[in-house]
Amino acid sequence: MRTRLAVLAAPAIVLVTTLVLYGEAGAETTRARCLEQARTSRNQCMQDAAERCNDAFGGSLQSCFGSGSPCVRDCLANRERCLVDPQNNQTGCRIGCSSEEKSAVAACKQEVDKKKCQQSAHLQGLKCKQHCLIRGAPAKQRCAQAFNDCLNHCAG
């Protein structure tokens, strides 16, 4: 009788264990998707806020210098031209980092400790993206300084 109960209990234990593990994996996937959506939402919010701030700044400039001031218009155009290369370089750099990160995460499927490998890949991706921002900052700062100098010239 005990052997019969053990034989019946073993498949039940395997089934429960499988359901629990599958449930945890499903929850991790759901959390990962949710996290990605939250990050996307945050990034969009920050872009929207930057656009609102830039629009407000443009309105303030018109109040300071009058609508359509040629000097201010030139400063704004010069700033936009100045930022093209630094922004394109940062974007390209970040795309390269994301590509390397995705490849590293995909390679983790072969690892015994998949989670640790993925965490390491994500950390390296983050460091790479931070490096892109740091590397691009001086050029963007030069554009900001030139823009500030230009506006000061317009005010003088």
Can you walk through the features of this model?
Helix content is 92%, strand content 0%. It is mainly α and 156 residues long. The model is unreliable at 1-22 (pLDDT under 50). Helix 2 (70-107) packs antiparallel against helix 3. It has two domains: 1-66; 68-156.
Distance between the termini: 100 Å
The number of strands is: 0
Q: What would you report as the Rg, rounded to the nearest angstrom?
A: 27 Å
What is the approximate shape? elongated
Structural class: mainly alpha
Unreliable stretches: 1-22
Mean pLDDT: 84
Largest sheet: none
Strand residue content? under 5%
Compressed to H and E, one letter per element, the order equals HHH
What is the number of helical segments per DSSP (H or I, 4+ residues)?
Answer: 3
Q: How much helicity do the residues have?
A: over 70%
Query: Domains counted in the coordinates: how many?
Result: 2
Helix/strand layout:
Blueprint: H1 2-65, H2 70-107, H3 114-155
Helix pairs in contact: 2-3
In short:
This protein has 156 residues and is mainly α. The protein contains three helices and no strands. The protein starts with a helix and ends with a helix.
Keyword list:
mainly alpha; elongated; disordered N terminus
